Amino acid sequence: MKNILVIGGAGYIGSHVVKMLKTQGYKPVVYDNLSTGFKESIDKKIPFVKGDLADKTLLKKVFRKYKINAVMHFAAFAQVGESVKNPAKYYQNNLAKVLNLLDSMIENNIKYFVFSSTAATFGNPITKTISETHPQNPINPYGQSKLFVEKVLKDYDLAYGLKSTVLRYFNASGADESAKIGEAHKNETHLIPLVLQTALGKRKEIKIFGTDYPTPDGTCIRDYVHVNDLANAHILALKYMLKNNKSEDFNLGSSKGASVLEIIKKVQKITGKNFKVVKDKRRPGDPANLIASSKKAKKILNWKTTYSIDKIIKTAYQWELKRKY
Ligand code: UDP
């Protein structure tokens, strides 16, 4: 059970998972339409198929050719703000295309699926940290699109025996220590890369989206989790699913929060650079606080985070300094 199809494996999180799968003796095959990913992020020795999830014929061919045992899905759009402005893009890609993929898996008798979900499925938290049992009431189309798939997966397990692991990321961040792969988005919207690029003079200012939130410094609090800690969770979750033949869900975060202002100050300290910070209005769809409780992942998968927020920023900084794509 080592042949893993990684859909969206040329993207930020996918490329780190592919590298770790390979290091741990799996045989990853990357399937990506390169709409947002980069071919440069994939080791040339790893099979790469340029394809779209809408293409059932190609999926079938790939499943057979590489004798795929399990599928991991990373090929989603993940920008909260954009999803509010253009929900159709999110429902088409993050929901309709995933339904197509799941149908293809069932038709081809592939019964194991690891699905990247998000803290955004919970909406505004009603408890300090968010565990798997927290009510799911997303406040933006991105979160909604992911929650729909989560619900579909429950029904598909009951009806078709498709086993899935839902991994809900909090704020994926940082880069591989090689600095050869890292966070690369054609249109960057995420806080840590934007602040670092501002520190490096690639952007003229960083805007803080909202300074009147009910948090100690008025800016939003997020739970930043290193991309390689997330990658490790995928491998642990895959092993668990294959061994126990059971669907599960896990919230993946560090269980600690950092505010937008705290991130900016840390970047100033770590890079030793000063830059322009501008207070701006709130971004639609943003909850004030999102902090994970990852007790379940610790207990069942023996997963823990190993990167502090400072180390996350340091690895992201090295990537920004050295990146080639
Ligand atoms: N943010 C900000 N300025 C920016 C980009 C992001 O103030 O230029 C804030 C954003 O409103 C949110 C936090 O930083 O509160 C993290 O946003 P990001 O887009 O990185 O991740 P998200 O939480 O949306 O997944």
N-C termini distance:
33 Å
E-strand count: 14
Order of helices and strands: EHEEHEHHEHEEHEEEHEEHEEHH
Q: What CATH first level of the largest domain would be assigned?
A: Alpha Beta
What structural class should be given to the helix and strand makeup? alpha/beta
What name does the CATH topology of the largest domain carry?
Rossmann fold
Overall spatial form: globular
CATH superfamily of the largest domain: NAD(P)-binding Rossmann-like Domain
Average pLDDT for all residues: 97
Low-confidence segments: none
Bound molecules: uridine-5'-diphosphate
Write the layout of secondary structure elements.
Blueprint: E1 3-7, H1 12-23, E2 27-32, E3 48-50, H2 56-65, E4 70-73, H3 80-85, H4 87-107, E5 112-118, H5 141-160, E6 163-169, E7 171-173, H6 191-199, E8 205-209, E9 221-222, E10 224-226, H7 227-244, E11 248-252, E12 258-259, H8 260-271, E13 276-280, E14 289-290, H9 295-301, H10 309-322
Parallel strand pairs: 1-2, 1-4, 2-3, 4-5, 5-6, 6-11, 7-10, 8-13, 9-14
Antiparallel strand pairs: 9-12
This protein binds uridine-5'-diphosphate (UDP).
Task: Describe it.
- The chain has 325 residues and is of the alpha/beta class.
- Helix content is 40%, strand content 18%.
- It folds into two domains: 3-173 and 224-252, NAD(P)-binding Rossmann-like Domain (Rossmann fold, 3-Layer(aba) Sandwich); 191-222 and 255-322, UDP-galactose 4-epimerase, domain 1 (Alpha-Beta Complex), CATH 3.90.25.
- It has helices at 12-23, 56-65, 80-85, 87-107, 141-160, 191-199, 227-244, 260-271, 295-301, 309-322, and strands at 3-7, 27-32, 48-50, 70-73, 112-118, 163-169, 171-173, 205-209, 221-222, 224-226, 248-252, 258-259, 276-280, 289-290.
- Helix 5 (141-160) links the parallel strand 5 and strand 6 (163-169).
- The protein is globular, with a radius of gyration of 19 Å.
- The protein binds uridine-5'-diphosphate.
- Uridine-5'-diphosphate binds next to helix 6 and strand 8.
